[in-house]
Prior knowledge:
This protein is of the alpha+beta class. It contains five helices and four strands, in the order H-H-H-H-H-E-E-E-E. It has helices spanning about 10-15, 35-45, 55-60, 60-65, 70-80, and strands at about 85-90, 95-100, 105-115, 120-125. The protein has a four-stranded antiparallel β-sheet. A hairpin with a 2-residue loop joins strand 1 and strand 2. The radius of gyration is 14 Å and the shape is globular.
Amino acid sequence: MKAVRVLATVLAAVSIAAGCGGGGGAAVAVPDSPAGKQLSWYMDAVNRTPVADKELKEHLSATFLKEIPPEEFNRLAKTLAGLKMTELTEVKPDALKGRASASGQEYKTEISVDDAGKIDYLLITG
């Protein structure tokens, strides 16, 4: 079983660093795959927090939600409004890796989905 975690470097130190360069490249197309569909959903969801528990259960695995409860998910997601993928470095039907940006800050981004197509791994770090 894959490790389940969500990390977002969105604390005050990152907010200060956000104005220090980097980020902001042109958005790249997200593939129409199970992982791509969930990444597209996530990039939309960060713009409309808080996301309802029912919707989170439709997109996040039960194991993921056990590790990252809805309140925590929404708190982190809110800080990533405007998130867009700027580079894809690994593309598989069930997993994507690359770089994203939001508010001028660049983030390493990884996502994978389980056999049901729900997010079971999401890593976003500055």
